[in-house]
Design a protein that fits this description.
Blueprint lengths: L2 H29 L2 E6 L3 H15 L2 E6 L5 H10 L4 E6 H9 L3 E2 L21 E6 L1 E6 H7 L19 E4 L5 H14 L1 H13 L3 E3 L2 H10 L4 E5 H10 L3 E5 L7 E8 L5 H11 L2 H9 L26 H6 L1 H9 L3
Parallel strand pairs: 1-2, 1-3, 7-8, 7-9
Antiparallel strand pairs: 3-11, 4-11, 5-11, 6-9, 6-10
Helix pairs in contact: 2-11, 6-7
Length: 333
């Protein structure tokens, strides 16, 4: 083979290699033009966030809300689905997902200053907002009952509040389950179950969602509801006959978080979406929808000023033992 022929063959080979490399790069880039997001967050807010991300970066977002399910079923959805990103779960849920190696570490620059007490040390999930618990009372009902508005957990045990208390069922998590786990950890098992037994005799009403509990108090069908603080405060601002009291002793840091799925096919886009969630634009969207986000200094954006006593959560106990915890609490005597 002559020198000229060898040079032609070498050039052809290099051209083919370059073409393959370019093809690979194009394929990798193409994978990052879309991202699949599942969400257990408020649907309206989820759509607002994913739409804003898609418009800003030109990345197609395949969005799917996660249906209500018990934790084992929800984790199975994450494990068997084709999702790249999980938005809006609780710290307990993400803890269990991390134990099953379903989540990939993520360290968005906007989360660098978050308080360590709110974060996973390995970065497998990242907190977006924090919420506390409040008691929302109907002033008219309270006046008729001849008592002051309940402000602390023990205020709910007044005999006059028999069949006057409403909250979501603790199986749904949220403020009602937060009440249980906080009192259990804050007071210890025996004292917490003593409280639970007395509360049981009050015959509280359990409903499916926070808005149903709030509506019962709004209508005057019940005197007091256990609700997320920011939601209760917004209702107080809208209606002068409603009164919001953050519980100061034995409250709860209810964390809403996000995570990149370990088996994500579009990890670069998923990481970019995580960065976006800590942008000023995304934080403002969350605040507009009632979420208390973290600002640039890592402080939670509450504007409340209350000094709340909150126990350090045992996430493993709260997540793995939820069924037994709720059952024991509801059957306490």
């Amino acid at each position: 083979m002559g020198l000229g022929t060898k040079m032609i063959c070498l050039a052809a080979t290099l051209f083919m290699l370059a073409g393959c490399t370019a093809g690979q790069e194009k394929k990798e880039t193409a994978m990052d033009t879309s991202v699949s997001v599942c969400s257990s967050m408020n649907r309206t807010l989820s759509v607002a966030l994913t739409d804003a991300f898609a418009e800003k970066y030109g990345i197609i977002v395949e969005f799917e809300p996660l249906p209500p399910a018990e934790l084992p079923q929800r984790l199975e959805m994450i494990a068997s689905g084709s999702y790249d990103f999980w938005l809006g779960g609780t710290a307990e849920e993400y803890f269990m997902a991390a134990q099953r190696d379903l989540l990939a570490p993520s360290h968005p620059s906007g989360a660098a200053h978050l308080p360590p007490s709110y974060t996973d040390r390995d970065g497998r999930w990242v907190p977006l907002s924090v919420e506390n618990i409040a008691l929302l009372s109907n002033r008219n009902n309270i006046r008729t009952l001849g008592i002051e508005e309940p402000k602390e957990w023990d205020d709910l045990l007044q005999p006059v509040l028999h069949e006057e208390i409403v909250m979501t069922h603790p199986d749904s998590g949220g403020a009602s389950y937060g009440m249980i786990t906080s009192l259990w950890q804050y007071r210890g098992r025996d004292r917490a179950l003593e409280f639970a037994g007395t509360l049981r005799t009050q015959n509280p009403e359990y409903v499916a969602a926070d808005n149903k509990a709030a509506y019962e108090v709004y209508l005057g069908n019940r005197a007091v509801a256990v609700l997320p603080l920011s939601y209760a405060r917004s209702l107080e601002k809208e209606h002068e006959f409603l009164y919001c009291a953050p519980v100061t002793e034995g409250n709860k840091n209810m964390i809403t978080a996000a995570a990149v799925i370990a088996r994500a096919k579009h990890k670069k886009a998923a990481d970019l979406f995580m960065e976006f969630l800590f942008s000023k634009e995304a934080r403002q969207l969350m605040r507009d929808h009632g979420y208390r986000t973290f600002d640039e200094t890592g402080e939670d954006f509450s504007g409340s000023g209350e000094k709340l006593s909150v126990p350090a959560d045992d996430l493993r106990w709260m997540a793995e033992g939820k069924h037994d915890i709720v059952k024991t609490w509801l059957n306490a005597r």
